[in-house]
Amino acid sequence: MHSKKQDPVKYYVGIDVGSASVRAALVDEFGTVVAHADEPIEIWEPQADHYEQSSADIWAACCSVTKKVVGGVDANQIRGVGFDATCSLVVVDKQFQPLAVNCEGQNHRNVIMWMDHRAVSQVERINATQHRVLSYVGGVMSVEMQPPKLLWIKENLKESCWEKAGYFFDLPDFLSWKATGVTARSLCTVVCKWTYTSEGGWDDSFWKMIGLEDLVKDKYEKIGNHVLSPGESVGKGLTPEAAKDLGLPEGIAVAASLIDAHAGGLGVIGADVKGHNLPCENQPITSRVAMICGTSSCHMGVSETPIFVPGVWGPYFSAMVPGLWLNEGGQSATGKLIDHVVRGHVAFPELQSKAATSAHSIYTYLNSHLDLIKKSLPVGFLTVDLHVWPDFHGNRSPLTDLTLKGMVVGLTLSRGLDELALIYLATIQAIALGTRHILETMQAAGHHINTLFLCGGLSKNPLFVQMHADITGKPVVLSKEVESVLVGAAILGACASGDFASIQEAMAKMGKIGRVVQPNHEHKRFYDKKYQVFLKLVEHQREYRSIMHSS
């Protein structure tokens, strides 16, 4: 008897560029993260609402983390590389050298970050056109998309940047260019952030109407006239230079990339749910929403036919899952908001000290402190008289109102740790109520959603997860691999390698369920009331603003 020789395991590298760090993972063909590394990247904030990065700094971090994760395996078993990144704007000249996106002329700062809100007046003018392409972004373009940023550059840095620019890349596409030398763009980035449509391509009339007719003249070479589907193989794979930088063999398949949130969606939304007693079992994938929650949050829902949802981006055809339309809701500040509220509180030094003494993170300590003060009440009920409206950085969905501000109702003169814990809880609840607002808007437009799939940094916080289950009334599925965004990026590399027939096949095999958190239906009445108050808060804000701004 001869024992059958086992085929060597196939591996894929997923590289994820987030807002503040770059991460890489070596992922096997079964979706297990075998090795993981991360490295911080720099953010410059030269003035309010201006956030900049350096593409050289980002690429150096990509190379560093990739070398760390691939060191322990035979390089011949690594079959593909996939990138995802924030939808930040990278500007380079005709020789691909960085160009300053700032008045200081600092060329290394050549990236306008996704969360940069400098182009407010530009986006207002773009929205005033009511051009037909805006129907694909919920009727109102966000300041976080690329056309207003391009218009800002033309109007503010015409000689130093606009006229010298050779290429404007979305960051995920910059990374695939850096790896392959090919300037092809991903359908995901150009459809979701640049107004390209999978049916009609670029709309000349839009760019001319908003004053960026220069981009039409060169047949869109600067912003992309060769578009690939996510997961499609780019060029001839890794160039010799990129292979050396990354510590990988030349020619390894490189996939057309995804925006980071979409990679997270890819990593979780297609997982096999058999045996978990979930309402989405034996239902199409369209019954699921993937929620990627980190610095900000994105809510990804797919449909077989286009659904136009007011205040929610899309529908975008094949932008995440090939063959399906994507709608994307979002909250501009979630993890960033929780940090802001907690670290800005007068009791934060006490929290820091006590958390350090107990060898816990500040959030684990806050969660256990809430358990101490709740007495016989369910923990969520502690905020019966404390309410937060979470739009400290404007509302992305479903109200698409950049001018909205955060609100807190129910403050007292108390300054201790109990009060910090309560405002932390109320902030998490406000974020979950915002999710409910987005889901209800999607459902009213025609989506049928029964299960939430969570990933990203905030999904590691059990209080955040439970509040989302209780407040939306839907079960929450957590993936087996916490780093779902990296698994999503690796799925792209797996598709580019040709080892899977389709992204759907790779999603089903490599996306794994970890834990399911069920909603506590006994708490429904309380959260229905909280939701009523939540909607009243924004009514009041609009009311008092109309009083203050009336002539």
Automatic annotation (TrEMBL):
Ranges for domain Carbohydrate kinase FGGY N-terminal: 11-267
InterPro entries associated with the record: ATPase_NBD (IPR043129), Carb_kinase_FGGY (IPR000577), FGGY_C (IPR018485), FGGY_N (IPR018484), FGGY_RbtK-like (IPR006003)
SUPFAM superfamilies xref list: Actin-like ATPase domain
Residues annotated as domain Carbohydrate kinase FGGY C-terminal: 290-496
Organism superkingdom:
Eukaryota
- Alphabetic keyword roster: Kinase, Transferase
One GO cellular component term, please give it: cytoplasm
- Return one Gene Ontology term, BP aspect: pentose metabolic process
Alphabetized GO MF terms: D-ribulokinase activity
Record PANTHER family: FGGY CARBOHYDRATE KINASE DOMAIN-CONTAINING PROTEIN, RIBULOKINASE
- What protein family does this chain belong to? Belongs to the FGGY kinase family.
> By what name is this protein known?
FGGY carbohydrate kinase domain-containing protein
What is the source species?
Answer: Chordeiles acutipennis (Lesser nighthawk)
